[in-house]
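Allow me, if you will, to draw on your knowledge of protein folds for a short while. Thank you for your consideration; the sequence and its tokens are set out here:
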Amino acid sequence: LEDCGYMARAAFVMDRLMTKLGLSGKSFVPLMSSFACAIPGVMATRVIENRSDRMVTILVAPLMSCSARLPVYILMTTAFVPPVMYVGGWISLPEIVLFVMYLVGIVVAVPVAWLLRKTFFKGETPPFVMELPSYKWPSFRIVMARVYDRSKAFVVRAGTLIFATTILVWAAGYFPADHTEHHQLQSQIENTQLRIAQFDIQNEQEESKQATAELDGLHEKHNQLSAHLIEVSFLGKMGHAIEPAVRPLGWDWKIGVGVIASFPAREVIIATMGTIYSLGGDVGEEDASLAKQLSAARHPDGTKVFTVAVACSIMVFFALCAQCAATLMVIRRETNSWRWPIFTFGYMTALAYVGALITYQVGMLLLT
């Protein structure tokens, strides 16, 4: 799209609207890219010559709902939003909620960009000057070279950081508990799987059925033990510690653990919740058993942990929070300062908390 001449025209068309936010049309392309991932969006701000425009674009780019937030939206909408149909069955309430979640980041980004332009980055927006190249067929060789360079930059800059932060979160969820029994169960599961394979080869159906039933019991015990181990880990203790702070959002310590564990990458919360609720870490956002387990979760007083208000609160939090260590590290490299990634994490976390708080409290008022 860049090489064929379309992107320059998209920037020109959007300039009038972006100017009202104190930005230029050149900010449109990085912000649009951020809907896929904020990392290439932040890196794409290099084409913006004006420093103020570039900095504001970098700071609001993580507010765009990237693809990493989608698993959270899908899990919460399919599990807790009733499938009410509108417009003669053409659109459902979960689809409307999903669309609204994508709008949340855009709507919030407007006042944030305006405030940043009026405070930290004062000054007149420079006139929009851009050469509009003629439409042409892009060169396949040049496009492939750019794809390679940008993919390599993403893997080197983001992949290594995600890997490092994932190790830290894993260590917090692993220690200091004794995992001896957990490893023994894993060995028993592997041995039972081998026995089932041998029975199937030898066509010993009765023995295979007995071994399969034994395997199911081992899996259930393994998942329950995994849930206990994560509760007594450093990560679980952190979840219990922050529970008073997240209780006004309608959350319990388990949701708090999921939010902490998803700091390296937002979608990690799905596997974390699967582990906490004794389903294992290989569940997906569309897994019916995970949705059923979350729906059945209860507080000690018997009330439901997850309601429509809680689900919306979680989605709003994830829509606004900067839970992506790789994005923050890329902001550090692009701005050559730790000040701006810390500022980004701080203001987005505050926005997410306030947004989730308002969503839950208003939701409870409407549902009672």
Notes: DSSP finds 16 helices and two strands in the chain. Residues 270 and 284 are 7 Å apart (CA to CA). The chain has a mean pLDDT of 84. The longest helix spans residues 140-174.
